[in-house]
């Protein structure tokens, strides 16, 4: 590649053109990821165009490494290869930071890990060829050198295969059970389309793939394709049911290892995949979450076990994986699979991608297998990155930018002589809840910056406080590129909440990124930078609605923290339960619904109190007879991912003595079939004020999940987090 071509690519990957800056000087050095060795001198070099030299020196130890020197009026960038030069010029651009000046500096830098990966699932929702190129640009900007392209899974097969055209033509997944259920909110056509506006449909032609592969290669990114097997294959087993177990339903999603023709089908597909990705050293087969009940009931699978001397279905999966690996090895490719390929014995040359945690990777590395660490509790980017209901729908738990920055692939349990088997790490972005390119970008940024430094920089070069300061500038860079980044790290959240002896409430706030002013109000209005400035804590001694908001450079950033109904009449009331809450979802115990702690919309938020298949019925003792006018209740619903449903109705009674109760409200709740996660708040007035010491509440559970629900016939849950009495 010529240097002129390299400069063009730097511009095309959204890095500022080198000689179009203003004449000011960069305020400070803000390079992400942090270089391994950097020595700052005094002053600046004025970059004029004729005082920059670049060259390749193959004697550099790491071909992805570079050396950058700015001194005595000149700048030189030396790369160990075209890739190293590419990364050196990226660093130069960040040093300039939009100006014509480079600080006097000497940098010697190289990545810590050879595998610096980022994943994208296009099977759950399809994203256009143009967006995939933009995604690759974002990866290149952050020095990610491996794009794990998740092309098939469950309901979506996104890759054209000549020998088996029904994989894309039949649109099999559209006919999978419940695909048009009102409970899932989907109304889909029956014809397969490649229209990128239809994120449920679509696939990439072979021409598309070749174009994307070439585009990535120019940016020093290798694409690793994933073709899921033996599970997560509903679309394929619907289009070609002859490769599923004969006892399974159409679209069961699991290939039959008892059929010899199954292996012919899959190796035919893999041969076409290999042809499309000639530079990929690996093919990813997934191998995770394989339900083996079908195999245990399949006579062909049982015969295979007897023939091969396999003792159980775990060993049957291992047999399946071994056969696929043998074919890939014969074609010059290595195989990657998730943790579950360890079950029944790991294939001899397989690389393990450890996602359920670190243990699978630790075990594999110690056994001499290469490992890529992808622990979901650190680097699953489909998890929430903010603790506020304003966050767009996500999946699972909470992985903020600091959590990603703390990701360390090399674990102490790995023997020192086996550490080299940890070839790197990556983050995964699954798209069950992500339907638009803008949402993908939001989930990616700024966490990708944290991942970049975690995988590139040596442990001695990593420092969270310094990264925080650099990230402040990185947000502006994202804005300059027009990328949709998340401001979640600026959103205030509650770190401590306690009741004082005098009945007042003390609340402490924080943001994930320190150093930014937080303003708040106690009347529910949106704060401005003229509202009360948060200092150390907030003491609340009467009914209040706390709102808080962070400001950066004089403008509001992030979301508003809203905590309603603090110190209401139910606060710290004695609670007795007629129906017990689940021991798995206590919310904090008997006082959970009167402690002024509100849950986020994640189902695993510990503030939720859950009731399985039973009504929620409880009585509040307010401590004295007082005038009450109504109740506010909050409930969670998430049809697509859980069995948590809104109640069908609420009935409320009041009493002055705890013996005689009067019905004061009977509130029906219409079902909401939206599959998205939601928190619904119900303000239930009594019609007229009541004198009461006791308030009894019953929220009626749906009981059994209805037909059309993804878990039809199962037990419905009620999740609630707080009871308010006014």
Automatic annotation (TrEMBL):
Keyword Hydrolase appears in the UniProt entry: yes
Signal peptide region: 1-23
Catalytic activity of the protein: Hydrolysis of terminal non-reducing N-acetyl-D-hexosamine residues in N-acetyl-beta-D-hexosaminides
Alphabetized PROSITE patterns for the sequence: FA58C_3, PROKAR_LIPOPROTEIN
Domain F5/8 type C: 559-700
Xref: SUPFAM superfamilies: (Trans)glycosidases, beta-N-acetylhexosaminidase-like domain, Galactose-binding domain-like
Any GO BP: carbohydrate metabolic process
Gene Ontology CC: membrane
InterPro entries the record matches: Beta_hexosaminidase_sua/sub, FA58C, Galactose-bd-like_sf, GH, GH29D-like_dom, Glyco_hydro_20_cat, Hex-like_dom2, HEX_bac_N
Keyword terms of this UniProt record: Glycosidase, Hydrolase, Signal
CDD domains (UniProt xref): GH20_chitobiase-like
GO MF: beta-N-acetylhexosaminidase activity
Short name of one Pfam family: Glyco_hydro_20
Catalytic site positions: 289 (proton donor)
E.C. no: 3.2.1.52
Gene3D superfamilies: Chitobiase/beta-hexosaminidase domain 2-like, Galactose-binding domain-like, Glycosidases
Sequence similarity: Belongs to the glycosyl hydrolase 20 family.
Protein name, as recorded: beta-N-acetylhexosaminidase
């Amino acid at each position: 590649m010529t240097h002129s071509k390299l400069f063009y690519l730097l511009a095309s990957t959204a890095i500022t053109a080198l000689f179009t800056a203003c004449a000011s000087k960069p305020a400070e050095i803000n390079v992400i990821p942090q270089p391994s060795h950097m020595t700052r001198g005094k002053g600046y070099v004025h970059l004029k165009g004729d005082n920059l030299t670049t060259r390749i020196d193959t004697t550099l130890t790491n071909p992805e490494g570079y050396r950058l020197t700015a001194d005595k009026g000149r700048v030189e960038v030396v790369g160990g290869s075209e890739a190293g030069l590419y990364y050196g010029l990226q660093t130069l651009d960040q040093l300039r930071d939009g100006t014509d000046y480079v600080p006097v500096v000497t940098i010697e830098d190289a990545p810590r890990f050879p595998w610096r990966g980022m994943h994208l699932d296009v099977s759950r929702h399809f994203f256009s060829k143009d967006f995939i190129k933009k995604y690759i640009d974002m990866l290149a900007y952050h020095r990610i050198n491996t794009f794990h392209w998740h092309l098939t899974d469950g309901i979506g097969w996104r890759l054209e295969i000549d020998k088996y055209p029904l994989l894309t033509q039949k649109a099999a997944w559209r006919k999978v059970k419940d695909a048009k259920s009102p409970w899932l909110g989907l109304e889909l056509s029956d014809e397969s389309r490649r229209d990128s506006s239809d994120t449920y449909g679509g696939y990439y032609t072979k021409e598309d793939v070749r174009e994307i592969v070439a585009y990535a290669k120019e940016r020093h990114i290798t694409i690793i394709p994933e073709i899921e097997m033996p599970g997560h294959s509903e679309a394929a087993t619907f289009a070609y049911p002859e490769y599923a177990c004969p006892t399974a339903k159409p679209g069961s999603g699991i290939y039959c290892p008892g059929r010899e023709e199954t292996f012919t089908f899959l190796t035919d597909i893999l041969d076409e995949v290999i042809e499309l990705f000639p530079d990929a050293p690996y093919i990813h087969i997934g191998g995770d979450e394989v339900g083996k009940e079908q195999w245990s009931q399949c006579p062909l699978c049982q015969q295979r076990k007897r023939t091969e001397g396999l003792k159980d279905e775990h060993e049957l999966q291992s047999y399946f994986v071994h056969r696929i690996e043998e074919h890939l090895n014969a074609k010059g490719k290595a195989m990657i699979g998730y943790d579950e390929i360890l079950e029944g014995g790991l294939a001899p040359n397989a690389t393990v991608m450890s996602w359920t945690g670190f243990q699978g990777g630790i075990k594999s590395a110690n056994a001499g297998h290469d490992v890529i660490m992808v622990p979901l509790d650190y680097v699953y980017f489909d998890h929430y990155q903010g603790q506020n209901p304003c966050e767009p729908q996500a999946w699972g738990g909470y992985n903020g930018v600091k959590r990603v920055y703390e990701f360390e692939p090399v674990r102490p349990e790995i023997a020192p002589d086996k550490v080299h088997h940890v070839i790197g790490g990556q983050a995964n972005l699954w798209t069950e809840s992500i339907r638009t390119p803008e949402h993908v970008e939001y989930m990616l940024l700024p966490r990708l910056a944290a991942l970049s430094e975690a995988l590139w920089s040596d442990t001695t070069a990593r420092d969270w406080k310094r990264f925080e300061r650099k990230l402040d500038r990185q947000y502006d860079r994202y804005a300059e590129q027009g990328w949709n980044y998340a401001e979640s790290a600026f959103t205030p959240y509650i770190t401590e909440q306690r009741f004082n002896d005098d009945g007042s409430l003390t609340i402490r706030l924080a943001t994930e990124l320190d150093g930014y002013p937080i303003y708040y109000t106690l009347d529910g209005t949106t704060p401005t930078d003229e509202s009360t400035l948060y200092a150390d804590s907030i003491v609340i001694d009467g009914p209040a609605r706390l709102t808080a908001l962070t400001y950066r450079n004089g403008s509001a950033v992030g979301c508003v923290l809203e905590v309603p109904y603090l110190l209401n009449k139910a606060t710290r009331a004695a609670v007795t339960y007629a129906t017990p809450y689940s021991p798995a979802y206590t919310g904090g115990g008997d006082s959970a619904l009167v402690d002024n702690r509100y849950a986020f919309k994640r189902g695993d938020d510990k503030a939720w109190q859950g009731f399985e298949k039973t009504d929620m019925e409880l009585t509040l003792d307010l401590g004295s007879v007082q005038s009450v006018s109504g109740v506010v209740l909050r409930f969670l619903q998430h049809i697509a991912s859980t069995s948590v449903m809104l109640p069908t109705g609420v009935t409320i009674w009041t009493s002055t003595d705890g013996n005689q109760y009067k019905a004061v409200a009977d509130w029906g709740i219409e079902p909401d079939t939206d599959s998205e996660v939601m928190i619904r708040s119900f303000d239930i007035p009594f019609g007229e004020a009541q004198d009461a010491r006791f308030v009894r509440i019953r929220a009626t559970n749906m009981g059994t999940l209805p037909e059309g629900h993804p878990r039809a016939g199962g037990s419905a849950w009620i999740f609630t987090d707080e009871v308010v009495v006014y």
